[in-house]
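Sanity check

After download, print the first record. It should look like this:
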Amino acid sequence: MEKVRCLIIGSGPGGYTAAIYAARAELKPVLLEGMQAGGQLTITTEIENFPGYPEGIEGTEMMEQFKQQAQRFGTTVRPETVVEADFSKRPFVVRTDEGSVFEAEAVIIATGASARWLGLESERKFMGMGVSACATCDGFFYRNQDVAVVGGGDTACEEATYLSNICRKVYLVVRRDVLRASKAMQERVLNNPKIEVLWNHKPFEILGDENGVNAFRLEHSATSEKRDIAVTGVFLAIGHKPNTDLFKEQIRLNAEGYIETEPGSSKTSVEGVFAAGDVMDPVYRQAIVAAGSGCKAAMDCERFLLANPLQ
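Expected structure tokens:
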């Protein structure tokens, strides 16, 4: 069993930033990267909206730089995934898929959230080449082009509206004949001349070539009739799933499964357990926000450990 003061579960901008701050505070953090080292940014092509990178940067490269900075200050990074966690008492006990067992005085959870995907084989083929789950992140690359958004809730309507300010035309693909979004969001979409709502249609296949997506094949929900729309981008807005299954019996989650934290802090319902990044943020889901929350989590963790030393 390995004893650590600060154990960080998950990488990505939230986890790595927490590691940077915790390491500089001499907490000697251990960071467990999880199944997707670097988080969702590693499936993003180029990032242009993170301060400090005026020419943009590849998501994988950015996360590697975050990792190196955390290691520079003394963070131990382990390519392991947590399979069991016991937060019933301090020190907390965490086990990984490699058989490691950690006894941690404090824990920062930064396991992120995963976009819900359609389940199409072509979707994975063109991920990062025209398929995206974040209009705010990737919309700029499709300026003056035709794109499609899949979904019928508030998120889908917000994404379609955002893209309409950048793109030439936006198709909103809705499985039913109604929108689930709020009345205000519905009116915003339906009154926007650059958005065309395709009612009663569902995704069938994403088409393209070595250059990326060039069309989206849809199927009518009632007749099964197929049609192709010429687009260069397909944005999925069918929701995100926070990666909290492992902790649902341990800490308080909201109805959607996101970790609940005390207002203005990273503190969870368990003293000594903190949360950072998309795992506790159902609203913004941006790298810069996740990084900021990682900073908060490390500072909260440091103050907790100073005030609550284990004998």
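If your output differs, re-run the checksum step. Summary of this record's structure: The longest strand covers residues 101-109.
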